[in-house]
Amino acid sequence: MKTKQIPLMGVAAALFLALGIQHSALFGQGSLTPPGPPAPTMKTLAQVEPRTPISGAPITITNPGSYYLATNLTVSTGDAIVIGTNNVTLDLNGFTISSTAASPTGFAVRVLGGVCNLKVMNGFVSGGVTNSGSIYSGPGFQYGIAFLGLWPSNVTVSGVHVSGCMADAINVGVNSYVESCVVQSVGGYGIVASTVKDSRAVACGQTAISGSQILNCTGESVSSGSGIDASTAINSAGYSKYGVGLSAGAALNCYGSSQSQGLFARTAQNCSGYGDSAQGLCAQMAVNCYGYSRTSYGVHATCAQNCVGYSSSGAGVYAEAIAIACFGCSSTGPGIQAYIANSCRVWCGTTNITHKYDMP
User: Fold this and answer.
1) Would 109 be classed as within a structural domain?
2) 319/353 Cα distance (integer angstroms)
């Protein structure tokens, strides 16, 4: 008996019908014509690196944008980089801007007056100026990063080291921010900005760090300038040879030292000061503070609370109004001198108190 063979196409059709698959679903329904040539997949150079390299100096930046150093820059006189427009970011990219001018001249980065929205970061400014005592001399820049004319605004300087300039190192005007910068051996101001954070300026010919808000900083002046001069200083230390070590409207967790006055503030809390020829610590309100002076008051305040003062020849603690829970010592004068003293103790020396409460 012969077996009837079913054509292959018949088998496939029967299978499709059994599975519920329509014949039309087996074939493409769209056009097979390509929509067009392939689109480019490579990025342009501007997309890969949307910044402008700087490979030589002097140069003036006149267009907004982002710029970066591609190498170290050296000038023999005058300015290295001038920023003359708003909205500029300048990345030093770890390189150094230096000057070999025999007599200090020009700026490493000159900011023209009145410009705004600038950022300078990540690099070095180097000159050959050194100091002997408070005398500065040598080659290099007059200024590091500073402005000429009207104050610039909204300027940020971050991660820049400046050394060996005859005048100011970083001076960037109002509404400005300086962070993580280091300054050494400059004949003028170290850092001047609205807010200065996590920075250090030493061996400065004028005030080392000056600003409205100063946080976690160290400043040293080798002349009559202040180590730190602030509206508010927090967790900071200032040193001065002949001026005030640290001067602030409000000082918190701060230290000041000087051959003159150590620390001066309207309010001082958790602070200490050392002064040689003037007060160790002087404040209208001093709380939890310590002061030492060789020739004047250890702590001098209108009101002093929980303070400790020592003096070799003046009063240990001198409170013009009231001293509360204070300890004082003086080698040759009163340990405590106050109009009102409450719960105070004298380690050594005499007392000069008009009204005593809860004390011998």
Assistant:
1) yes
2) 9
Q: Token digits for 274?
A: 């050392």
Q: How far apart are CA 145 and CA 129, in angstroms?
A: 16
What is the rounded distance in angstroms from the CA atom of residue 339 to the CA atom of residue 352? Answer: 8
Radius of gyration of the chain from Cα atoms? 35
What pLDDT score was predicted for residue 174? 79
Which residue segment(s) compose the domain that 135 sits in? 50-206
Q: Is 50 exceeded by the pLDDT of residue 244?
A: yes
Q: In what helix (H) or strand (E) does residue 48 lie, and over which residues does it extend?
A: helix 45-48
Whether pLDDT at 40 is above 90? no
Percent of the chain with pLDDT over 90: 82
Residues forming a β-bridge with 328:
309, 346
The arithmetic mean of pLDDT across residues 107-119, rounded, is 96
CA separation for the pair 246, 301 (Å, rounded):
16
Contact 280, 304 (CB under 8 A): no
Residue 152 lies in a domain: yes
- Look at residue 281 and tell me if it is in a domain: no
Residue 332 neighbours by CB under 8 Å, 6+ apart = 312, 313, 349
Residue 341 CA neighbour count, 13 Å, CB half: 23
Domain annotation covers residue 170? yes
Question: What is the residue type of 173?
Answer: G
Structure-token pair, residue 360: 């011998």
Please give the tally of structural domains in the chain. Answer: 1
Q: pLDDT tens digits for 152-176? A: 999 999 999 999 999 999 999 878 9
Which pairs count as long-range contacts for 31-36, CB under 8 Å and 24+ apart, including other chains?
A: none
